[in-house]
Design brief:
Alpha-Beta Plaits; alpha+beta; four-stranded antiparallel beta sheet; 2 domains; Arc Repressor Mutant; about 40% helix
Length: about 140
């Protein structure tokens, strides 16, 4: 870890009040850690915006009774095999499944994969959780 550096900043009182409310509601014990996490979040977003190598998780909830859907989802994943690290499949009930697909690669390819998977008939929800390899936010 780097040495800590203290800094000061100026905020309007209403904005400071909003910051204090966010810190408290988020469960942080101090402003510093909250601000550090806000900065890290912005850095991760920049990695995605700049199409860097990133990691993420695609979550799919779908009805496996929809004709041909499982095969289409598998084919799509095979087409993007270079970015898929692992897939976990869980049966939620007699017709619904959830898949978690852990991915690593260029942000644009991951976003394309998530977009293609969500478009299939029978996919009830598709979410993309974005993160970082950590290389650029140390």
């Amino acid at each position: 870890m780097s040495a800590l550096v203290r800094l000061s900043l100026s905020l309007e009182k209403p904005l400071l009040d909003q910051l204090e409310m966010l810190v408290k509601r988020s469960g942080y014990t101090n402003r510093s850690e909250f601000v550090r996490d806000m900065i890290r979040e912005r850095l991760v977003q920049r990695e995605w915006d700049e199409d860097r190598e990133v990691v993420g998780a695609i979550t799919l909830v779908y009805d496996h009774h929809v004709s041909g859907l499982s095969e289409k989802l598998t084919d799509e994943q095979h087409h993007h095999h270079r970015v898929i690290l692992t897939t976990t499949h869980v049966h939620l009930d007699k017709s619904l499944c959830v898949e978690m697909i852990l991915v690593r690669g260029r942000a644009s390819e991951i976003a394309t994969l998530a977009g293609r998977l969500r478009q299939y008939k029978g996919v009830l929800h598709a979410g993309l959780s974005t993160s970082t390899t950590g290389a650029h936010i140390k």
